[in-house]
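Me: Here is a favour to ask of a fellow structure person. Could you put it straight underneath, so I can go through it closely?

Assistant:
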Amino acid sequence: MVRRSRLRWWFAFLFFIIGLIAYMDRSNIAVVASPIMESFGINKVQFGFLNSLFSLGYAISQIPAGLLSEKFGARIIVSCSLIWWSIFTMLTATVRTFGSLGAVRLLFGMGEGPMYPGNAVFNTYWFSKKEKGRASSALLAGSYFGPVIGPAITVSIFQAFGWKAAFYTFGIIGIVVAFIWYALSRNKPEDHPKISKEELEYIIKERSVAKEVKKAAPWGYLLRTPRFWIFGLTYFVTIYIVTIYLVWLPTYLQEARHLTLAKSGLSASLPWLAIFITVMTGGAISDRLLSKGKSRMVARGGLAIGGLIAFAITMFLASRTETTTTSVLWLTLSLGSLGFPVVTSWAVANDLGREYAGSVSGWMNMWGNIGAFLSPLVCGWLAQTLGWNIALLVNIIPIIVTAFLWFAVRPDRPLFENQLSSSKTNEIM
């Protein structure tokens, strides 16, 4: 019997570590928001703008990163990305003006952007069709475990050495991991000297990669395909909401629920623990449904829709409760429920794009980070002008719309199915 959990899963674990570092780097600014706002003399809207600049840089880099990942592979792209964003993580602690801090956050986002298109290309070549959900879970879960442990670590470093020390610490760790990834990884399993013959045969036989020489992704066809746009819109809304938690949850707990910095750091980590669990298990659940004969619409789309509905219910309850403990509970469940549409979206990007997964995931993640760009600004403005309850409650509306949009994504049909059929017909004629 072929052993299926060997080298490829060790690389999935290494990607877990990379994702962990990425989100610790991204979220530590939210944990120390109060001292940063005080140090630079800025308000909530301006602080939200800093986070929006990160997301703008991230969004700008997505499509180029997808194309580069398909051309050069995940090994070099992920390594360069990790070194780039780690350098700008450290530079965050060196700037002295609001303008220079904004420029650093923009370039930080551009550097981190290529990580997940590289992730998607790696998934395409290293995992079988039946493992896409579990591989997406493993490759994504680190990103959502980062904010679980990040707040506590950042608060500890801040209290001992000041807020700047946190950025230096995380940046150095990132550079070290970049060199480890480059030394150990390869773009394709057939290029790796340590992979077993049995595992290599299994991967090549079961993965969804065309055998013919691949051309550049047909962007003209993609941009004329409504499902391509709808898929991007669903991820726009999902990441818009996730970013609210990333940027504003510690501040919300301190201002609306009157928690101390230390207590808010602990409470802010609980929702991220919940989404880590659902991201980690969601892929396995989805793959299990597929193995039982369920369609991808049920296994991927159904799981995403269920998570979105659960978010709407629990967010409503979180906005209406009066006690801090209950509020944290509902907020934990609401963010946790978004783990299902997050992980299934990345599995669907592979299902829809196949060997063009880098381009499809780059498009999807570009829209997600346009949502992340708008989220801190809109939520910061709502909180400052209308209060925190309205800032939370209003998010239910786009989530419900997104649940309906998933029926139009149609994960069962690859985006290039019609085009490939048309090409074959033309060749015969």
Observations:
- Confidence is low (pLDDT under 50) at residues 1-5, 420-429.
- The CA atoms of residues 190 and 201 lie 9 Å apart.
- The radius of gyration is 21 Å.
- The chain has 20 helices and no strands.
